[in-house]
Amino acid sequence: MADYPIEELGGKTPLQKAHIPAMDSMAKKGFIGLVSTIPSGFTPGSDVANLSVMGYDPAVYYPGRASLEAASMGIKLESHDVAFRCNLVTFSSKGEKVIMEDYSAGHIETDEAGKIIEELKQNISREKISFYPGVSYRHLMVWSGGKDGMQTTPPHDITGKEIKNYLPKGEGADLLLNLMDESQKILKDSLINRKRIGKSKKPVSSIWLWGQGRQIAMPSFEKLFGLKGGVISAVDLIRGIGVSIGLKPIQVPGVTGYLDTNYLGKAEYALKALKDLDFVYVHVEAPDEAAHNGDLKAKIQAIEDFDSKVVKTVLEGMKGFKDYRVMVLPDHPTPIVKRTHTSEPVPFVIFSSEDETVEPRIEISFDETSASQSKFFIQKGYELMKYFIKRR
Predict the structure, then answer these.
(1) Which of 148, 222, 288, 376 could form a disulfide with 82 if both were Cys (CB 3.0 to 4.6 A apart)?
(2) For position 44, which CATH number holds?
(3) Final residue belonging to a domain, choices 185, 213, 241
């Protein structure tokens, strides 16, 4: 949700422009501040940021994005395995240049994507190389006995750019490049692609391999914080972090990781889960996806939907518990102008049952400016969870 001031919005950020009475009410009565979720030296990404938010120091526990997604998908990695994120992407041409047109192939539907992954499995899989279908454009490739030291680039970081300078480099990159080239030859004649073009949808031009990682053991959330928890997300990465730290994955029908996700279902399932669990981590991807697409209107709508369907529902439902605490924050900024993640601190707000009778502070709202004016700043993002849980 976090962003920069935008001229089109009169110098406001999307959070400041959006109608978010639920989050604003939390800020007016609760506790607001800034937190740095991306440690120095780390590339700003959802993997690193969500590890921080969940209370785990990325400098100690970050294993690579794809290995976390493998955990969510139930893929067991051996010590010699390397997992890679495998995006289905759309290229376009400008003269002799090949451009990354869409990192998600038009947010391809999961059923069509699964058929394409199956087609690739039959045609380009080989000994020690395996493909696994995921959700929408997000899939996995596992290289048994593979290399993991090469340089790879997230495709959402290079939308509209020539791909040549961002292809995998380093030891082991040749294999990745060969797989990507072979996928392009197969996809060029794919029946699924012909049907997509016939429906004016973006075809899948290629796979894009990145985010490599190996398996790593992490202490459980219950061991660190003394609470039994669950995780709700449409995104394998977030569920994978949760699974890796012992959070129960809670399946919600109709979640897509996009603008059409089942916001209300996430809130309702979280409230239901809290009858048996102490803690639930609810993740919503839509504002991030809208920002990657450079769609300001969609980002504001996603923020408002999150507020009205998730935050409001949770706050109302929590009143059924004697004691409770709720925290809301972005995992990282995704500014519209950059269409990718950045490392700046993000606002957070904590509201508890103790705050219900507090006199509201009229001048406070939930946004980047109010958070920065609060003077409360957590430099080590992984310490926020401890503060949230232990604060009295």
Answers:
(1) 148
(2) 3.40.720.10
(3) 213
